[in-house]
Design goal:
This protein has a domain at 6-103. It has two helices and no strands. It has helices at residues 6-47, 56-141. Helix 1 packs antiparallel against helix 2 (56-141). This is Flagellar FliJ protein. It is a peripheral membrane protein. One of its GO terms (biological process) is chemotaxis.
Length: 142
Amino acid sequence: MKSKFNAVIKVKKQQLDKAQTDLNAALQRQKENEKLLGLAQQELLNLGSLKGQISSEELRANVFMEGVAREALARAKEKVELSHKEINHYQFLYQKAHLDYEKMKYLQSEELKVMQKAMQKAEEKFLDELAVSRFFKKEKNE
């Protein structure tokens, strides 16, 4: 049976699917950012471990590279924090879309129940009228 909610449910389902896709993409970006953060931390640790005698130029270059690695680490941490906020945002949007979709599904099911009761009542009325008409027709023929 068709319901007035069919079109709305279709749109809500599309919104729910889009929210799910966006959330999955944000989760994937967060995994990538966490991987980059781990790589930046590892790079910084590798730069800090110089062994043996080194010249002043090598020391300056190493200090400069450590500064660059610290900046990269800070950017990676910032990206992880931003991706975490992004995930929270998309989770909220997904929950909202899911709630809206479920609301429309519930309203549709309630409307279908009402329509089904109305059809059942109409069928009962028709059967009663049919039985009454047959009864009177039978009495007339006797």
